[in-house]
């Protein structure tokens, strides 16, 4: 992949799928496009984090680190997002994010998105619907994983 970086366009995928081309172009003006190079840290675990990151291209790893090891939490690629929770409940990052290859990211903080919401309320409603849909899918997946683990633990304790 080329590492040249002109202002890319926000594609109509993931949370952006409900926005038309003009809305995505306008939204791009309310944040910033970032080139992220291989092994570059985008988010640092434990540091203040108040932004939404939309991955345009590339692959990033979400991970937690201890002195002993690095634990991969997730891989995120084009069309996926990071940081949605902290838009609504600002806090510190629960994990770090590192680029595994050259990536293009659009970043917007809460103020950026509030300004977009004031200027373009209908488009902002579609964006928020996309964010909430993504958060709901993640919550549902986590609930399924938890239920599976609890069922496995119950089965193990029954046979132990």
Automatic annotation (TrEMBL):
InterPro entries: cNMP-bd_dom, cNMP-bd_dom_sf, Env_Response_Regulators, RmlC-like_jellyroll
Gene3D superfamilies: Jelly Rolls
Signal sequence range: none
CDD domains reported for this sequence: CAP_ED (cd00038)
Record domain Cyclic nucleotide-binding: where: 15-134
SMART domains reported in the protein's UniProt record: cNMP
Source species, domain of life: Bacteria
PANTHER family on file: CRP FAMILY TRANSCRIPTIONAL REGULATORY PROTEIN, HTH-TYPE TRANSCRIPTIONAL REGULATOR ARCR
UniProt-recorded name of the protein: Cyclic nucleotide-binding domain-containing protein
